[in-house]
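Lab notebook: predicted structure, single chain.

Context: the supervisor wants predicted structures on file for every construct in the current expression panel, including those that have not yet been purified. This is the next one on the list. No modifications to the sequence; it matches the entry in the shared construct table.
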Amino acid sequence: MAMYRKLGRSSAQRKALLRTQVTQLLYHGKIVTTEARAKEVRKIAEKVIAMAVREKDNYEEVTVKAKVPRKNADGKRVKEVIDGKRRTVYDEVDKTIKKDQPSRLHARREMLKILYPVTSSETTRKDGKVGGYSRATISKTHNVLSSIMRTAVEWEIIERNPCGKVKVPSIPKTADNIKFFTPEQTAAFLAYTEEPHTWEVKAHNRIDDTAKGYTVGQYTSQKGLSLQLQVLFHMAIYTGMRKGELLALKWPDIDFENNTVHVTKSVSVLKGRVIIKEPKTRTSHRTITIPQSLTVKLQKLRISQSEYRLSVGEYWQNEDWIFTQDNGKMMNYSTPYHALQNTIKWYNQSHPENEALPLIPFYGLRHTSATLLIAGKQDVKTVSSRLGHAQTSTTMNIYAHALQEGDQRAADTLETILKKHS
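Prediction complete. Output recorded below exactly as produced.
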């Protein structure tokens, strides 16, 4: 029998529910639940308790140096001003701790697997998506758990942070986890972004200016993707630039006469704040040539932006960004991703299932650009230069799948030539 029964819920909900109840049972000693759930909870809890009892005394006591907060007579932490900031004063003391034996440490890790698992790239996801969690998701989960444990150490609830020596697994980029459009899908996607679409709006309620409610019946409307998003998607595919590099573009970075784009800066989010920084690597400072058709689109966008800026007057904050919000500020960092996801979903809703586009992330447009160039028999050095990779080996490692396809075509061509002369 499987460890987790359905219990009328999805797999992810079921596991979260059972693990929560097991934790509550171990902490409080009793819980109130249904008979079916109680059987499952008991089975899991007994496994954890058996390990705990078996390894209870399997440790050795060692003395270590530890920093503890200095406290005053009232039991409050002593603070002093350092560099203009109040900081807690710590004293170094000898402290006796319990050092786990190997089997006890293993049991502790097994318990963490039962109660707080982090899904790696090799496991099956429960949200229906293909592949495992990304390194970013795993890192965020690890950071949250580590922060909780670190606080517990400071509050002297536990003796050490069990997440301290846990390394986040490295997930290499391979053909299996790189998502991109094929040439046919890319052409269909770009064509779709330039066409007006028919939108079906369901019946819904509204409130008029007098605060009275009324119902609007179902209707259809025609609307196309904004020129700004059209240019954004075309730029991502034709240049292979990273999202942060695209958002950091200003109008002076475009050379309209020579059809080039100068990449000199990038955007990222740090602790919830958007920051402008140098590009990812030294070679990320680069000049990329773009087709004349894309230059024309950029010129149209600049004219459209200028007209809109004049119409809104002082509301516009003129910072010369190419991709903006409605007030002239830089486009929100998450907008490109959500705009791409919505566009792909709208495309798939209006096309047969066999013509559906894969739901790729915004970074997938960069992968698409590189894959198309390699498929078009461009040399790796040129592709690497356009992408801003520090070394051509980086390009070769990431896009080995496209290079292998080209190598297969070369082998087939050679075989055809030799057969003609045999």
